[in-house]
Design a protein that fits this description.
single chain; about 425 residues; mainly alpha; two-stranded antiparallel sheet; 11 helices; about 70% helix; elongated; Chloroplast_duf
């Protein structure tokens, strides 16, 4: 009986304890797992070379033994590229210099022309007024005569200096230099874009830059080009010893055929017989005209200055007439010479003659190369010649045929090679 009571008591106590536990339920905390960080293994040398700016290339680099020649080759090519970019910077600076100096010398031409004409016309007016006033005017007429004499003398000195330097011709020189430097700049950019430059390309670019510097000097003292030579000499802005451009052969014969060689020889013949001779003839005419005008202007102002001086001493009406007429003629001659820019016309003919001489030498040097693999590709060369002459390929071939026919028949060639100039 006592054991039954004890068992009942135990059952009651266990059930009550279960009820208490059910009433008070404690939520379970989430389990947090702590893992010790793994030590990173150091990168290998190949991974360090592949990694750049935090990203790893997908193409692994091979062993150092195999990658060393590639690195050396890349560095050698990069050095030629860096040198060409340095030459491009120098060329850009020269373009800016020639452009700025050309604008400055254009201002010289305008300002000196206007100033000398104003001085000459003012002195001519003073001489005429002094002669019309007569002897009774006294001191006022004497002052006009002295002033006109001084102004004529000043105009003579300024005109001699202006005719010596020929500002309009200097401006044309700077224009041509700017255009040719830009042309060289575009050629180097094309080489960097589509080719693999080497040290020979760097040397060739350096020679072309120095040849342009020599052909179109910037300073006036010491190295200024002769403005009044004995006869026209074509401008030379390229290295005298040119190496033909070598391109990879697109065909077995590199685009050259016997017909193409005959065509190029015919084009050279037309350039010699028509274009070069015509521009030399016109250039010599412009040179002779410029010489006459450059001599006549200061001579007329000098005569006007002497006439004004005789007016001061003798009050002769003939001296006043000579001073007035010579001053008016000097103003007209000066306007025609520098306003018409006769020196610029002569420089234009000189550069055009140089252009045809360059074409002639480039075609002949290419044809003189016996190995066609070392020549520039024939089809590309023909297209370049046609573009430089302003013709299509068919027109260029027609000109070559006409040249051969006229040479065989002995008749004069009636067509020029170029349509641009």
């Amino acid at each position: 009986m006592a054991s039954l009571q004890a068992s009942n008591f135990l059952l009651l106590s266990s059930s009550s304890s279960n009820q208490i536990r059910a009433a008070i339920s404690i939520p379970k905390l989430p389990s947090v797992r702590f893992s010790a960080p793994k030590l990173r293994q150091p990168k290998t040398q190949s991974e360090q070379l592949n990694s750049k700016d935090g990203f790893i290339n997908t193409i692994p680099i091979q062993n150092n033994v195999h990658s060393t020649p590639l690195v050396q080759q890349t560095s050698s090519v990069s050095m030629a590229t860096f040198q060409l970019y340095a030459i491009l910077e120098a060329i850009a600076d020269r373009v800016e210099m020639h452009n700025n100096i050309g604008e400055q010398r254009d201002n010289w031409n305008t300002l000196l022309l206007n100033s000398i004409n104003m001085i000459t016309l003012t002195a001519t007016t003073m001489a005429g007024v002094a002669a019309a006033t007569g002897v009774g005017a006294g001191v006022s007429a004497m002052g006009l005569k002295l002033a006109s004499s001084v102004m004529f003398s000043a105009a003579t000195g300024m005109l001699v200096l202006m005719n010596k330097i020929q500002p309009s011709q200097l401006v044309e020189e700077q224009r041509n230099a700017t255009r040719l430097f830009k042309q060289l700049q575009s050629q180097i950019k094309t080489l960097l874009a589509v080719g693999s430059p080497c040290q020979d390309d760097v040397n060739d670019a350096m020679e072309k830059v120095l040849a342009l510097d020599k052909a179109y000097p910037l300073p006036l003292l010491g190295v200024m080009l002769e403005k009044f030579p004995a006869s026209l000499e074509s401008a030379v802005w390229w290295p005298r010893k040119q190496s033909p451009n070598s391109n990879k052969a697109l065909k077995n014969n590199n685009g050259w055929t016997k017909e193409l060689e005959m065509e190029m020889r015919g084009v050279v013949e037309v350039i010699k017989r028509k274009d070069s001779e015509d521009y030399e003839r016109l250039g010599n005419k412009a040179l002779n005209m410029n010489k006459v005008l450059a001599t006549s202007g200061p001579l007329l102002t000098g005569i006007a200055a002497l006439g004004s001086a005789f007016m001061v001493s003798s009050n002769s009406p003939w001296a006043a007439t000579v001073a007035a007429v010579a001053g008016a003629l000097a103003s007209a001659v000066n306007t025609f010479e520098h306003g018409g820019q006769v020196g610029m016309v002569f420089e234009m003919y000189r550069n055009n003659a140089g252009f045809f001489k360059l074409m002639q030498e480039s075609i002949e040097s290419t044809l003189d190369e016996c190995d066609v693999e070392k020549r520039e590709n024939g089809e590309l060369f023909e297209m370049k010649v046609a573009l430089q002459l302003g013709r299509s390929l068919s027109e260029l071939r027609d000109v070559a045929k006409k040249s051969s026919y006229s040479r065989i028949e002995g008749s004069p060639m009636d067509e020029f090679a170029s349509k641009l100039f």
